[in-house]
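Intended use. Records like the one below are meant for learning the mapping from a protein sequence to its folded structure. Do not use them to infer anything beyond what is encoded.
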Amino acid sequence: MRDNLREQIKSGKFAIGTRLPSEAELTREHLVSRTVVREAIAALRADGLVEPRQGSGVYVLEPQAEIPAPFTNIDSTRLSSVIELLELRTAVEVEAAGLASQRCSPSQEEKIILCLRAVNEANSDRRPSTEADFALHLAIAEATNNPRFPEFIQMIGPNSIPRRALDQSAPQEVPQSYIDRINAEHDQIVNAILGRDDNAARDAMRMHLKGSQERYRNLLRK
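Structure written out for the chain above:
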């Protein structure tokens, strides 16, 4: 019934500003109970399609502009979008690294080490490393043992991991010095976490993400 009413509203059968049939009329028309009618109206109200008015009835509302879900309109081909995400990640992941250093379990330590090896090997072999890089940062977020941190990382997704010059199709152009620097930054983060040094973990993560911001701002200036 809910879907039927929704389609009738969207098709214009029930125009904006008009009153829906009464509860009794809807019950007879759809051959359902009053409870079903009330549940359908409640669902339509939650969707912003109708508005009950006490003593008057239920009225059709003008559809609201759909608000895109967070982080779904990111253009990963634009340097400015990469920088925006790096700034946001810095605000969250610096603290995540500090918490992970104090809270991670042995199994979480093992996962972080395995992820570190995977991303370092991918970088050294000049293979695409976005997924491995994302897995490492997610493993660190999970090691906070605060579910909101990994939820955030998963919400922004692998597109939050910067790619040099936004082009992995030409990995041979990546200087060895760049690869060595990224691997060293990851090593410093993980070593600080495993060493249970929360200040060093925060500093290493901050240096890593701030460094990425600076590298991409340099590309933006070219």
